[in-house]
Structure to design on (507 residues):
């Protein structure tokens, strides 16, 4: 995606300049109601179509997951889990893809200025022309979402259809979903809607139903309604309590200024040493003693 | 001064080996710092842009690793620690104030040089290993994301360590006059040898 003039930027990777902030935009969110998903993959098809992507035909791996993982061309994938408990079997189907974290690990990790941006509406977008293909976003992401293309060595993931949202449209997947398991709107509206759904699910016996909007990443702009919100990892390994890895925090946090300060200090120390102590020179006496030892004539 | 008044310190092969190491280390520091700190991203322009920097950096790393390996095997026996080195280190304060008179006579390397040697040996090994983990183009599928995160931290820490050691190494060569010609011409003066590496000098002239 290129940056969109009609969307203001809140944060820009590897940049210290503050982007323009005069407009106030509402935050958007996509709400995926896992309890209403029938696993038809219309969202996957709509994603490929709108974004003009073509997933290479793969192989049957013994599951309904197709493709079996996110790829540079498949920015969303339905993950199917058979959850057995007691005599019950539940088929948990989760539409995986970028969660559009409010505190995005990918953006924190990215070393290329402007290769990852977060719009004021909360969407996290990759700006391919600035991407250098280092793969740091993959290390920064707590959800294992970005994929680096083997073709152009650039990172790809769901854009939350930022180009559609910029002109007042809902994302393609939400538009295509036949059971309205995918909603799109302001984050506040989506939370309110999720609350109604949770009440409904609880009345049907899912006493741990709840909204997945993990606070460890500042909340997300893609949220799930889960029947088992106490155990998110049931849903094909959705992280129970995602956060930016402490290692990434160290690497992209305190290490940067401390390292540069250490290097600057070493340079300044050397400079001060030289101008206070002067050069370490060989005296004429040393030269004579050296010549004597070598047994040659004095130079 | 005619050439027979100097002491040969390095063979041409050793000097070429060192120059390759030196140049690749500087290029690695520049390209690595460019990707480490956003304020230094402009350094990618020296390498033809961000993508080129990302692509070239690991290859320069391979050159450095094998080049340094050459230096390692050339010089590691000369860098083994001995009792005089401990004495020298305890008198580091006197050394940096250019008052070395009372200190033991030194072989080819002093304790500071030995620490540079062993420090860079360990750091370059760690940089190479962690660098392979981060080299997604060829090795993406061999490690987990958590291992890659650890590798990123190790790589950055070791790189800063190696750059700091490099600064000490280069500064010592600037401060101690007569040293740099060992790198540019392979020889040093008799006076320099007497002052800084007298034991080695005695061995060289066959008068221990």
């Amino acid at each position: 995606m290129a940056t969109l003039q009609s969307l203001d930027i809140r944060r820009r990777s590897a940049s210290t300049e503050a982007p323009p902030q005069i407009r106030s935009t509402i935050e958007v969110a996509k709400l995926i109601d896992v309890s209403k998903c029938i696993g038809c993959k219309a969202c996957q098809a709509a994603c490929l179509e709108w974004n003009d992507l073509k997933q290479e035909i793969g192989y049957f791996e013994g599951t309904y997951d197709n493709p079996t993982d996110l790829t540079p061309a498949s920015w969303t994938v339905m993950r199917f889990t058979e959850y057995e408990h007691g005599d019950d079997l539940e088929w948990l189907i989760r539409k995986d893809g970028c969660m559009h974290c409010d505190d995005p690990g990918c953006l924190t990790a990215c070393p290329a200025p402007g290769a990852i941006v977060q719009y004021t509406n909360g969407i996290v977008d990759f700006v391919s022309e600035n991407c250098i293909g280092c793969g740091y976003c993959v290390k920064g992401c707590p959800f294992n979402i970005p994929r680096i293309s083997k073709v152009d060595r650039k990172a790809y993931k769901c854009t939350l259809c930022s180009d559609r949202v910029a002109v007042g449209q809902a994302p393609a997947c939400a538009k295509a979903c036949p059971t309205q398991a995918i909603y799109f709107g302001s984050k506040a509206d989506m939370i309110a809607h999720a609350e109604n759904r949770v009440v409904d699910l609880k009345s049907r016996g899912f006493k741990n139903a709840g909204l997945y909007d993990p606070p460890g990443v500042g909340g997300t702009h893609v949220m799930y309604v889960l029947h088992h919100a106490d155990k998110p990892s049931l849903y094909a390994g959705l992280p129970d309590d995602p956060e930016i890895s402490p290692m990434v925090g160290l690497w992209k946090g305190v290490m940067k200024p401390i390292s540069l300060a250490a290097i600057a200090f070493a340079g300044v120390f050397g400079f001060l040493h030289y101008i206070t102590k002067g050069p370490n020179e060989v005296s004429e006496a040393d030269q004579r003693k050296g010549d004597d030892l070598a047994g040659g004539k004095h130079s | 001064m005619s050439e027979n008044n100097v002491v040969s310190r390095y063979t041409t092969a050793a000097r070429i080996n060192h120059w390759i190491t030196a140049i690749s280390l500087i290029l690695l520091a520049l390209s690595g710092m460019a990707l480490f700190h956003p304020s230094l991203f402009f350094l990618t322009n020296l390498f033809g842009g961000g993508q080129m920097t990302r692509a070239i950096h690991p290859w320069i790393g391979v050159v450095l690793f094998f080049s340094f390996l050459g230096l390692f095997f050339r010089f590691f026996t000369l860098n083994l620690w001995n009792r005089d080195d401990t004495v020298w280190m305890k008198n580091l304060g006197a050394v940096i104030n250019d008052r070395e008179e009372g200190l033991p006579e030194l072989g080819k390397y002093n304790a500071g040089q030995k620490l540079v040697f062993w420090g860079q040996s360990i750091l370059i090994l760690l940089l190479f290993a962690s660098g392979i983990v981060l080299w997604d183009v060829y090795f993406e599928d061999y490690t987990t994301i958590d291992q890659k995160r650890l590798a990123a931290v190790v790589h950055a820490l070791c790189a800063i360590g190696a750059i700091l050691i490099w600064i000490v190494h280069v500064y010592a060569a600037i401060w101690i006059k007569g040293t740099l010609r060992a790198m540019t011409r392979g020889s040093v003066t008799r006076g320099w040898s007497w002052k800084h590496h007298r034991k080695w000098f005695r061995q060289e002239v066959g008068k221990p």
The longest helix of chain A spans residues 255-277. The radius of gyration of chain A is 27 Å.
